[in-house]
Amino acid sequence: MEGKSWNQITSGGLTVSTKTDCSSCWAESMDPLYKNFFFLTFYRYYETEPFGRNYFENLSFGAIPLRLGKFELLGKSYGACRPDTIPMAVFFTSEYDAGKDKYEVLKSEKNYILLNKLDKATGLVEGEFAATFIRVHKASDSAYPDTIRFQPSSFTAFVGAKE
Questions:
Q1: Strand locations in 6-145 (E)
Q2: What are phi and psi of 109, to 5 degrees?
Q3: pLDDT, tens only, 95-132
Q4: Less packed terminus of the chain by CB within 10 Å, N or C?
Q5: Are the C-beta atoms of 62 and 74 separated by less than 8 Å?
Q6: 87 preceded by cis ω (within 30°)?
Q7: CA-wise closest residue to 153 among 136, 121, 129, 125
Q8: Which residue from 51, 50, 57 is spatially nearest to 16, judged by alpha carbons?
Q9: Taking the model in full, what pTM does it have?
Q10: How many CB atoms lie within 10 A of CB 3?
């Protein structure tokens, strides 16, 4: 984000890491339609004692068709699996378990996720995304900007993996 690596060690020695969660739609057990969609989430966190992982940024994509192609991100931040299955993205900040800032895609910008490699046998998905987000809820003590832009960024994940 903003041209900086998500994983880093701050000047104060705090390690900032990323966790990835890539799963098929939880609703597929209720309706087979959903087995053709997945969601992908990137969490940034730091670790402190005695609390463990403290998540503070989350970038999520949901209702993404599980097939090769480029998909425009149009939806708002509903659940990853919903009846209209419109590809969506959301970015939000938090402090421990309390939500802070919430962002939705800025529809006047090009927002997409591109799947250019997919192996359904292993669950491998690879591709890239680009998205611009506008803040729709601001915490009173927020230091985040009104707009956040992710330039084209590549990703590799495995459907079903949580790390």
A1: 8-9, 15-24, 37-48, 52-65, 69-72, 88-95, 98-105, 112-119, 124-137
A2: -105, 165
A3: 766 778 999 999 999 999 999 999 888 888 899 999 99
A4: C
A5: no
A6: no
A7: 129
A8: 57
A9: 0.79
A10: 6
